[in-house]
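Researcher: I'd like a structural prediction for the single chain below. Treat it as a standalone chain; there are no partners to consider.
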Amino acid sequence: MALRHAVLAALLDEELSGYQVTKAFAAGVANFWHALPQQVYAELARLEKEGLVAGREVVQEARPNKRLFRVTGEGLAELESFASTAAKPAFLREDLLVQVQAADHLDADVLIERLTERYAFAEAKAALFEDQLRRMRGGLDEAEFLLRGARVGPYLTCRRGRDFERANRDWCRDVMRVLRARREVPADS
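Model: Treating it as a single chain, here is the predicted structure.
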């Protein structure tokens, strides 16, 4: 996937400024795509030049003017073409996994500290996703929302982010449990 597709997807529901697109990335898209603000702004410029988004200037009083973007018909066609291609499997690349891979040669206390930090991050991120899911559902339970909700795509990607962080949290807890238990057992001579 290219950044262009993530930006186009972020613009599907409404016209947004570059700042709002970067906020959308931080709030929702970040669970499956990371981009720096300057990357998003550069991509918006490319997409506009290619005719995949249309931008318009909004004059504001007492504030700098802003530029709003919306997906064009060509942009939607680009997303449809992207969706028709086979998705490549994701590959996990995380420093903590390398550290755990080397656990037998590292200080277990230091590694447990790193795992504790990642556990807390995952717990907090999963809670944020859960709050976001609740807001998206409104007064509906999940089953009803999935059948009748207005926008199921953002909900499903947010749910994937929540589940991913829950899995990270559980994995950290399990690894810490193993490392603590191994400290209590004398090493083979």
